[in-house]
Amino acid sequence: MSNALIIVDVQNDFCEGGSLAVAGGAGVAAGISRLLAAEPDRWDHVVATKDYHVDPGAHFGDPPDYVDSWPRHCVVGTAGSEFHPDLETGRVEAIFHKGEHAAAYSGFEGHADDGECLADWLRARGVDRVDLVGIATDHCVRATALDAAREGFGTTVLLDLTAAVAPVTLDIALRAMDGAGVTMLGKPVIRAA
Q1: Best CA proximity match to 60, nearest among 103, 100, 97, 98
Q2: Catalytic residue among 9, 131, 138, 147
Q3: In this protein, which residues make up the domain named Isochorismatase-like (predicted)?
Q4: Is 74 helix (H, G, I), strand (E, B) or coil?
Q5: DSSP annotation string for 90-142
Q6: Local structure of 15: helix, strand or coil
Q7: Which residue in 15, 74, 140, 147 is the catalytic one?
């Protein structure tokens, strides 16, 4: 069996200067790159997810409620949907796009260019353990971690390489992941309350 790193949504729109920026997002991008350079043999596989919206309906709100609807972000074909430039993507073997026509938070809702879903891709390569990093701890990282555990993967979130939106939603996410048996190491980046 083998392990994989899942890099969740480290995209321009979720980093400083983006339309749905999370404080510390650029630092997370750089930190992931440093870790990959420092420990090149730590993971057998590295994959990434992307929010990838075409027309996600009520997921975009005007005005947004920041619960179920959000400002326009990660629209296909825009600079905001691209990976942050501080994220080194040379080791990324596959990218799983999610949310083209509906809200999607978990990378396990996504698919590669050939249509293969994340769970099938991992299983085809004998992966039984995954580590997660990325943005945002309390939304897409949480959803991806919960689905990874539900799919039967040993799941660890490297919190030091995640950035969270808000203390309240972070607390809810940490409790949910703990309750699902997800291992959490470190502390996420979060703006002071």
Answers
A1: 103
A2: 9
A3: 4-184
A4: coil
A5: TT--EEEEE-SSS----GGG-B-TTS-BHHHHHHHTTEEEEEEEEE-IIIIIH
A6: coil
A7: 140
CA dihedral 25, 7, 167, 159 (to 10 degrees): -100
Active site residue 138: no
Q: Using alpha carbons, list the distances in angstroms from residue 120 to 35, 95, 110, 142.
A: 26, 13, 11, 20
User: Which residue, 64, 146, 144, is CA-closest to 110?
Assistant: 144
140 noted as active-site residue: yes
Tokens for 69, please give them: 């609807």
**pLDDT average per 10 residues of sequence, the chain (193 residues):** 97 97 97 97 98 94 90 96 98 97 96 97 98 97 98 98 95 98 94 59
Catalytic pick among 15, 51, 74, 98: 98
- Tally of residues, the chain: 193
* Per-residue model confidence (pLDDT) at position 66: 86
Backbone φ, ψ for residue 94 (5° rounding): -155, 150
Three-state SS at 27: helix
What is the predicted pLDDT for the residue at 190?
Answer: 86
